[in-house]
């Protein structure tokens, strides 16, 4: 249907008016019109779009809600990893972090910092294309999250279209989705009136709301958004500091924290922390600490990252909330490495937003420090607002005749002897994988997402497999038959087939994942990657001596001893042989020893867009030919591979007189070097 000339103008005017009112209400917290005026304008726009469907637009205020429920959330890859932060729990730890910043930058004074409240919500990534919201995803494991675009579109403070017109073709905005306290209380009050179960705290409420497959349910939840960082963005014409990025977001109509401040000293940081701490209970939203970031992006690049956290940012946590309750008993749990951990069973108590009935006691030394007795009244806190732990004992409330908590003489699961290594506080079961508890924990670790990634192999299923004798070590997973699985509780034809497909798929992995999956003490993902890159094969790692292991970055004397102990065990050697015999394979990995290629001694930087491959693939090719790759251009750079959009790296390379080649020259040089 063709529309009158004035209809499109009317539609555009209504959209602009509604977007302006939404911005005033949700972002500026300064509503200019009553709700009925907003509703009237929205209804008028809906009627016009229904009458003239050709005028519909995904970024229209009418399109925030209304999609059909999803069957499941799709997994999506983040353009750049969404990293976690290291924590500081005292002024001394914060001071040490700031000193490391100064030392690593080799400067005399602390660079400017930006401080912001650490919102207690759900981290999300928003991608805008041509200024229009194209995708929203949860943080997930940092590299992959869940696509929650339909749900996020319902949140009034998230712009469907950025304001103004000076936004790039593609930009990623990261922030926190949370539920303000007033909305949380109102929602829970309504839930109680309706006879429904209320949420325990605003964070759980936000998480539960974003996990709804029906976006119409999410739309009824009082959620809000606050941006705190950029992710993927153009290199050209981009602000040089975090503060300027926040101001840019604000100009686009994206909400940022009005409590953000620029600081220049430890004293400023401590003062900011104390001021926000005093306001914490009166804020309209929950926060669990302060985030400090080095403001200048070039300084951030120089500082870099360690493991999964940046060296240029840290979270200063507020003191955990505490409560008083009574210990009803102590249970000793056995972990994957045989460590026996005492856990206090408590009379349930509400602390830090959740009801706590268990708390860690860490080890017997901690029990000794507390002088814990059976039935003691204790102070419990949630460390970092997450892990409940016993802080102290209220001795004056102790019952007469109460006895001390004593260490077990035998493993509480398999009755094997208990060992205590000199210099360690931890008790360990000597039963190894003969201990069902250790075996179950080892299988859980082996099957976990960051290890062999066997989807569907959950804790309850593992319990049944071990108890039924189906799995005596991790290699038995690859021998499972459908008939045996079907005898287990709640396992049907479909779930058995799905699990067996997941196990089959896991046979193709990578060497770093496989090393991590073996569950060697103190060998995390970063150490597994370093070992794989250094040695290149599991055989080389298994046969390495102490001196060879100590040459590996991220491997110290303690880790080296654990590696030697693991690979010298006859039982572990047999399991390793069975795993390789079961067809577990991985691609050949280029090692740090393989530096004798034609590009040995050269340092390359890859920047801009490549047509034939990704930048990561180009870097991998260069490393396979002996070159070292770096993320920034410096006087040590040998060659810059510059595609379209190379930006400041190209400018810097030109100023330093560094050789610059395009993609065609790169492909020709690779072909020549490979020939």
From TrEMBL:
Q: Cofactors per UniProt?
A: Mg(2+); Mn(2+)
* Residues involved in Zn(2+) binding: 411, 414, 435
What SUPFAM superfamilies does the annotation carry?
BRCT domain, DNA ligase/mRNA capping enzyme, catalytic domain, Nucleic acid-binding proteins, RuvA domain 2-like
**Group of enzyme by EC:** ligase
Known EC number? 6.5.1.2
Keywords of this protein's UniProt record, alphabetized?
A: DNA damage, DNA repair, DNA replication, Ligase, Magnesium, Manganese, Metal-binding, NAD, Zinc
Locate the BRCT domain: which residues?
594-664
Active site (catalytic residues): 118
Catalyses which reaction(s): NAD(+) + (deoxyribonucleotide)n-3'-hydroxyl + 5'-phospho-(deoxyribonucleotide)m = (deoxyribonucleotide)n+m + AMP + beta-nicotinamide D-nucleotide
Q: Which NCBIfam families has this protein been placed in? A: dnlj, PRK07956.1
- Which purpose does this protein serve, as stated in its record? DNA ligase that catalyzes the formation of phosphodiester linkages between 5'-phosphoryl and 3'-hydroxyl groups in double-stranded DNA using NAD as a coenzyme and as the energy source for the reaction. It is essential for DNA replication and repair of damaged DNA.
The entry sums up its family as follows: Belongs to the NAD-dependent DNA ligase family. LigA subfamily.
HAMAP family membership = DNA_ligase_A (MF_01588)
Q: What is this protein called?
A: DNA ligase
UniProt source species: Congregibacter variabilis
The beginning of the lineage is:
Bacteria, Pseudomonadati, Pseudomonadota, Gammaproteobacteria, Cellvibrionales
